[in-house]
Design a protein that fits this description.
Elements (H helix, E strand, L loop, with lengths): L1 H7 L4 H7 L4 H16 L2 H13 L2 H11 L10 H30 L3 H38 L1
Helix pairs in contact: 1-2, 3-4, 3-7, 4-6, 4-7, 5-6
Length: 149
C-alpha cells in the first residue's frame, strides 16, 4: 500500500522501490514490467501483457476454483468465486483472443519481432512464476506463524 501510495503521489517506480523495502522478487517483477514498457516496443509490451497475464490468468483462476474446498452451502467465498469465474469468462472468451490478435497484428511477418515476442513471453512467465512462488511462500510462512501463536 505504501508503494502504491508513493506512485500515486508522483514518485517514480525507482524512487518508490528504493523507499519501500519490497522483497527482491517483487522488485524484479516490477522492474521487468517497466523495463518492457520503457523499451517502447509495442510488440514486446503486447507480448508481456498477452502471455504474462491474459493467456495464463484464466487457467490459474480455474485451477484455484477447482482446488477450492468450499461447499455449496458455504457463502464465505461466494464473491471471490464470482469474481474468479467472471475473470475466467472475460479473459478466456474476450481479452485472451483479442490480445493474441494484437500481437499478431503488431508483428505481422517480421521474424525479428516474433523472436522478441517469444523472448519477452518467456521472461514474463518466468517472472510471474517467481512472483507467485514468493506469494505462496509468504502465505505459508504467515500460516505457520499464526498456528504457532
Amino acid at each position: 500500500n505504501a508503494f502504491i501510495g508513493s506512485i500515486k503521489q508522483g514518485d517514480s517506480i525507482e524512487t518508490a522501490l528504493n523507499t519501500h523495502q519490497l522483497d527482491d522478487k517483487i522488485c524484479a517483477f516490477i522492474n521487468f514490467t517497466f523495463d518492457v514498457i520503457k523499451s517502447g516496443k509495442e510488440h514486446c509490451i503486447a507480448s508481456a501483457f498477452t502471455f504474462g497475464r491474459e493467456d495464463v490468468i484464466p487457467d490459474m483462476f480455474l485451477e484455484i476454483i477447482q482446488q477450492s474446498k468450499t461447499s455449496k452451502d458455504d457463502n464465505r467465498y461466494s464473491k471471490l468465486l464470482y469474481y474468479l469465474n467472471r475473470h475466467i469468462e472475460i479473459d478466456g472468451d474476450e481479452h485472451g483472443p483479442i490480445s493474441l490478435k494484437m500481437v499478431e497484428t503488431l508483428c505481422g511477418n517480421d521474424a525479428q519481432k516474433w523472436n522478441e515476442v517469444l523472448e519477452v513471453a518467456k521472461q514474463a512467465l518466468e517472472h510471474r512464476i517467481v512472483l507467485w512462488d514468493h506469494i505462496h511462500e509468504s502465505i505459508l510462512r504467515k500460516k505457520k506463524i499464526a498456528v504457532t501463536h
